[in-house]
Design goal:
- The protein is α+β, with helices and mostly antiparallel strands.
- It is built from 5 helices and 5 strands.
- It has helices spanning 24-40, 99-111, 122-140, 149-166, 174-187, and strands spanning 10-13, 16-19, 69-71, 74-83, 88-97.
- The strands form 2 sheets. A 3-stranded antiparallel β-sheet has the order 3-4-5.
- It is elongated.
Length: 204
């Protein structure tokens, strides 16, 4: 890329890479060139992951079959955005945490088996889970932070299920358990890293 295509912006992480082209024809030609170069190194482009994507937004509104791709846990696709200075909505080609990354995070939380750990305290759970949450929030919260809300809500739902198992007075009482956690979240917002915002509706 540096030798043959210095004018094309590109990036790579391990064996994943992106190249920005100015037209579909340029992208097709570059793809053929990369295939030939990799073959010289006894390598090949991934047959299903490799694709040409049209970065559709308010300035590029053509009709193409591929308008999204995943890269490093983010999904890049057309999204509604707001110009806050002018107060208008527009279409932006922007990243947010990918559905597959959200699924992986939920599976990680589920594997901790918090719902059944009635032998531990809430402080113990916080010490165990906060490093994970902090890393995810710092990484995936950089772009379109609202997209990780479903994962954070799942964490709160897991905590509510834990409360209902640990304390007999909350058995089968989902609303009361949620109110109990909401009160704790307001009184001890720093207990879990994702409680530092407004926790008023996260246990409903």
């Amino acid at each position: 890329m540096e030798r043959e295509h210095p004018d094309l912006p590109w990036c790579r992480y391990a064996d994943d890479g992106l190249v920005h082209c100015r037209s579909e024809q340029e992208a097709e030609a570059l793809k053929a060139t990369l295939q030939a170069r990799l073959a010289e190194c006894q390598l090949e482009l991934h047959p299903t992951k490799t694709k040409i994507v049209y970065c559709r937004d308010s300035n590029r509104n053509g009709a193409y079959p591929n308008v999204m791709f995943d890269f490093l846990g983010y999904c890049f696709r057309p999204r509604k955005a707001e110009n806050k200075r002018r107060g208008i909505l527009f279409c932006s080609f922007a990243p947010a945490v990918s559905p597959s990354a959200l699924k992986s995070m939920r599976e990680k939380i589920r594997d901790l088996d918090i719902r059944r750990r009635t032998d531990v305290s809430m402080d113990d759970i916080a010490r165990n889970i906060n490093p994970l949450l902090r890393g995810w929030i710092e990484y995936y919260g950089r772009y379109t932070p609202s997209a990780i809300t479903p994962m954070l809500r799942y964490v709160n739902q897991t905590l509510r299920a834990w409360v209902m198992r640990k304390f007999k007075r909350f058995k089968g009482r989902k609303t009361c358990a949620g109110q109990f956690l909401t009160r704790i979240a307001r009184e001890s917002a720093g207990l879990f890293v994702h409680w530092r915002g407004d926790p008023s509706d996260v246990f409903t």
